[in-house]
Q: What sequence folds into this?
């Protein structure tokens, strides 16, 4: 390996550049790339921990047929034969691909070409349907094309940044840091619009905790206010915008109605509207709080309307900016990975179909859009789709009504799953699993939020028999009889064709244009610098500032959108709105971030965040268990009481699966409702009811070897150095606790202790003076001690007498100060340590705490939480002084 390899982070859509080099111990060192224009050398906690995820322990190393090891020859023969047979027997629409924004553009291109061009159906959809499709639909309605007009620099040159439904601090941490730095420098005002108070509110001058789903009303009100106060950009609107009168007429609403409908004060609404009115450089950044809604597309257009009206679009520091989630969500849109797009930003119009079929020399090209994700799985359930190939996504966790998705896959004749790990909830339903190359092994391109194409470059050998996705699909395509159209021997070959298609008969008609790379050599491909498209003759930084849109008339469209009630409103039986989303240190279904002990310390269990009054009303205790039920499914989660929630709304993270918990899959609860234009599911709004989950006992289990948990009413697993930590709870006691502990903890020297009065028991099994397993059982959750010091004993060479005693007394030996929940995962600094630094040492700023504890001084991802701890600790301290 060269001194260091430049590649791109495989997580979020910020698309940070990463430098990978070897260390002296045979491992690798991962650093931010100082020359990458997304991050200039910084990485967030997830990026900084990438090195922890490179091991082969959990990798899928060979193909498997019916869960038995098979050769590539056998597996690809079978996939090709079954898809071919199914198409011959039942027609092309009887098969489907379900793909992902985590594929590289080259993988995506080949999958799209195979199914749309040669199998002859557009039944290919992507998990970006659950992520970005409302933005795509909104953009197309307003601009005539799916174009993101703004760039990251606009975050730094704007005077007002409005964050709508975005928890930027946790989900796009490097953009958050750039914005925070800009705020410090130029005093940028920040407004956060989110029903929850999130870590992002650290930098908010104003937080509008709106009623879930009420965004359209809020932005329609803004448009009316702008109109009444003369904010129309006369010349821009007259020359470049359509739909003005109709939209103003249809959306007119007064501030009082807005305040009432959105459940925020008139003063706050006015403060937001006035700020927007008076600030030319206003940037609206939006994400899943906008997209994942049954009116997601309307929400997008309600925001864009205000920008078109004021001519604040495509200029420095102002415009609408949809931030993408996955590393290659944008690339997927570019190649046409959505069922309703054809390829290279071309649609299912007769001209585009003709153009693409000539380019591909495809006789059998799909003539109309295919099934979108939810409809696709419904068609599988109904038996219309009989063979499906799932690549780089875990729909049994992430799709709404995941119980029904599982039923569908169970019934499906033939299910293929390509993944890089050896176990996922979805894989359990696969007839064939195919081992894909993982991050460090992949070569190709990804496009980030600001349309910047960066290279992913391989820095290690393929694990086992893993292969890059483009190669797997190419092999199957050839075996299906399409050798000539799939001649690719490298990702360069695919990229080259993708570039050529973007340029084919384009002449500036389509925004997506890479024609400047048409003569790029293989070596040139290897050296591509991070570059924003369009690349070539029509290159520009920003779109639409010049008033040229891609609609038929060439004008931008204002769209008359109306607020709507949710399809499933809350009822007396299901009185709370379930919101769901992300936490700082985990990525989606945890197949990769779950492998990092340090990323597992920040949040150790699946939880439900509840407002104190709601908790009181439902009899829920902080740290207890709650059963959450919707019309579609149920979950058991740890209760986290928090003032950050609105009273009627609860929040659960989306990350846990059956792989690492008993019943904490978010998708099982979520209503299968979609936006009518985009088909994007309403993942942020499901009516649920809550009730305390009464367990007879609770236990902390720390074991060296992974357990196959069974018989627990509740369990969840997290990873620590040298051990696995299980939080479990049960209904009914085992006939013998001693025997039970023996089975769970393994063979060795057993230490046991029971506290008959409290009904508590503690066991430790040692082998050669090292702990093999520890179990601490109590009747209530408060009886369970903190895990950090117990887990740390597993990393010790041997246990002394005092350690043994401490295990059984469930108290650390000597005077070990408790850390509390980990806040800074880079330096393993806990809440209690930070509180002590504030109260006992008077460290009164994030910087001062950094100096004392190092917390927040590496990746910076925890700085918002430290700020919140500072505020809360100071308030509590004052309260105590007053009392
Ligand atoms: N740590 C981490 N980062 C990630 C990811 C990850 O898994 N982990 N995933 C990446 C991906 S794929 C994506 S798509 C992005 C998502 O990034 P974000 O969209 O920022 O993240 P979410 O947590 O899904 O949701 C954002 C916010 O929407 C709010 N919200 C809910 N309902 C409403 C509403 O009606 N109106 C408004 N205005 N807000 C509402 C939620 O309370 C939540 O705080 O994150 C990316 N980055
Ligand atoms: N309730 C609720 N549901 C949601 C959301 C929400 O906010 N709330 N958010 C939605 C959003 S925005 C998203 S993006 C989705 C994400 O949901 P998913 O896409 O289902 O989640 P991931 O865990 O990212 O799944 C990616 C899979 O691909 C594998 N993989 C990684 N790299 C590769 C590769 O190179 N090749 C192959 N073949 N496999 C690979 C990983 O091991 C993993 O199993 O969830 C959606 N679902
Ligand atoms: S912000 Fe973090 S997760 Fe996103 S690309 Fe950068 S390092 Fe990766
Ligand atoms: Mo996403």
A:
């Amino acid at each position: 390996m060269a001194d260091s390899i430049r590649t791109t982070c495989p997580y979020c859509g910020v698309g940070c550049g990463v430098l990978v080099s070897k260390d002296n111990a045979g491992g690798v060192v991962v650093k931010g790339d100082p020359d990458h224009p997304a991050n200039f050398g910084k990485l967030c906690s997830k990026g900084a921990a990438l090195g922890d995820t490179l091991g082969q322990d959990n990798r899928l190393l060979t193909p498997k047929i019916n869960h038995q090891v098979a050769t590539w020859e056998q597996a690809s023969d079978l996939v090709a034969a079954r898809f071919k047979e199914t198409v011959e027997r039942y027609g092309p629409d009887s098969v489907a691909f379900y793909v992902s924004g985590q594929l590289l553009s080259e993988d995506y291109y080949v999958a799209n070409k195979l199914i749309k061009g040669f199998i002859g159906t557009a039944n290919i959809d992507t998990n970006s349907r659950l992520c970005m499709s409302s933005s795509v639909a909104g953009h197309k309605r307003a601009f005539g094309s799916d174009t993101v007009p703004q760039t990251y620099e606009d975050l730094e040159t704007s005077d007002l940044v409005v964050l709508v439904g975005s928890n930027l601090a946790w989900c796009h941490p490097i953009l958050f840091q750039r914005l925070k730095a800009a705020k410090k420098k130029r005093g940028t005002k920040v407004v956060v619009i989110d029903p929850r108070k999130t870590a992002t509110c650290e930098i908010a001058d104003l937080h509008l905790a709106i009623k879930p789903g009420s965004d359209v009303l809020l932005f329609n009100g803004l448009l009316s206010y702008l109109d009444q106060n003369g904010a129309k950009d006369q010349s821009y609107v007259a020359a470049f915008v359509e739909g003005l009168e109709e939209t103003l007429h249809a959306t007119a609403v007064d501030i009082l109605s807005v305040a009432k409908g959105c459940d925020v004060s008139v003063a706050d609404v006015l403060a937001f509207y006035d700020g927007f009115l008076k600030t030319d450089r206003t940037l609206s950044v939006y994400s899943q709080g906008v997209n994942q809604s049954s009116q997601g597309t309307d929400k997008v257009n309600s925001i864009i309307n205000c920008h078109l009206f004021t001519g604040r679009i495509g200029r420095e520091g102002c415009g609408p900016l949809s931030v993408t989630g996955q590393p290659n969500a944008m690339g997927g849109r570019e190649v046409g990975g959505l069922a309703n797009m054809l390829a290279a930003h071309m649609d299912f119009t007769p001209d585009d179909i003709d153009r693409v079929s000539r380019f591909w020399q495809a006789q059998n090209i799909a003539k109309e859009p295919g099934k979108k994700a939810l409809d696709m799985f419904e068609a599988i359930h109904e038996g219309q789709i009989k063979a499906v190939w799932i690549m780089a996504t875990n729909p049994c966790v992430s799709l709404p009504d995941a119980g029904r998705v599982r039923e569908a896959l169970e019934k499906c004749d033939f299910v293929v799953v390509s993944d890089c790990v050896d176990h996922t909830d979805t894989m359990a339903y696969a007839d064939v699993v195919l081992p894909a190359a993982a991050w460090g092994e992949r070569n190709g391109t990804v496009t980030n939020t600001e349309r910047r194409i960066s290279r992913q470059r391989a820095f290690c050998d393929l694990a086992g028999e893993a292969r890059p996705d483009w190669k797997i699909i190419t092999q199957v395509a050839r075996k299906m009889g399409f050798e000539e159209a799939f001649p690719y021997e490298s990702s360069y070959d695919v990229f080259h064709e993708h570039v050529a298609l973007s340029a084919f008969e384009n002449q500036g008609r389509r925004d997506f244009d890479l024609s400047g790379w048409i003569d790029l050599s293989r070596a040139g491909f290897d050296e591509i610098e991070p570059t924003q498209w369009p690349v070539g003759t029509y290159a520009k930084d920003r779109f639409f500032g010049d008033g040229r849109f891609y609609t038929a008339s060439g004008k931008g469209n204002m769209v008359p959108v109306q607020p709507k009630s949710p399809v499933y409103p809350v009822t007396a039986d299901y009185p709370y709105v379930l919101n769901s989303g992300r936490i700082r240190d985990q990525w989606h279904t945890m197949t990769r971030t779950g492998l990092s002990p340090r990323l597992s310390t920040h949040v150790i269990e699946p939880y439900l965040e509840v407002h104190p009054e709601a908790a009181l009303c439902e009899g829920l205790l902080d740290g207890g268990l709650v059963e959450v039920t919707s019309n579609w499914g149920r979950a058991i989660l740890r209760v986290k009481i928090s003032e950050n929630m609105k009273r009627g709304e609860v929040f659960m993270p989306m990350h846990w699966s059956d792989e690492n918990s008993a019943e904490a899959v978010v998708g099982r609860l979520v209503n299968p409702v979609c936006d009518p234009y985009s088909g994007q599911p309403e993942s942020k709004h499901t009516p649920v009811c809550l009730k305390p989950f009464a367990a007879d006992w609770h236990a902390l289990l720390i074991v060296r070897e992974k357990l196959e948990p069974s018989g627990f009413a509740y369990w969840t697993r997290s990873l620590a150095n040298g051990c696995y930590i299980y939080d479990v709870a049960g209904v009914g006691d085992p006939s013998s606790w001693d025997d039970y502990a023996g089975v769970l903890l393994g063979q060795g020297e057993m230490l046991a202790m029971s506290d008959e009065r409290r009904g508590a028991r503690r066991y430790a099994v040692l082998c050669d003076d090292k702990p093999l397993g520890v179990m601490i059982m109590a009747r209530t959750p408060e009886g369970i001690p903190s895990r950090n010091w117990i887990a740390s004993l597993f990393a010790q060479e041997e246990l002394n007498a005092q350690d043994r005693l401490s295990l059984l007394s469930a108290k650390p030996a000597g005077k070990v100060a408790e850390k509390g929940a980990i806040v800074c995962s880079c330096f393993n600094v806990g809440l209690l340590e930070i509180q002590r630094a504030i109260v006992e040492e008077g460290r009164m700023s994030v910087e001062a705490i950094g100096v004392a504890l190092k917390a927040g001084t590496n990746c910076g991802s925890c700085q918002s939480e430290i700020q919140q701890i500072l505020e809360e600790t100071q308030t509590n301290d004052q309260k105590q002084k007053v009392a």
Q: What stands out?
A: The chain has a mean pLDDT of 94. Residues 697-807 form one domain.
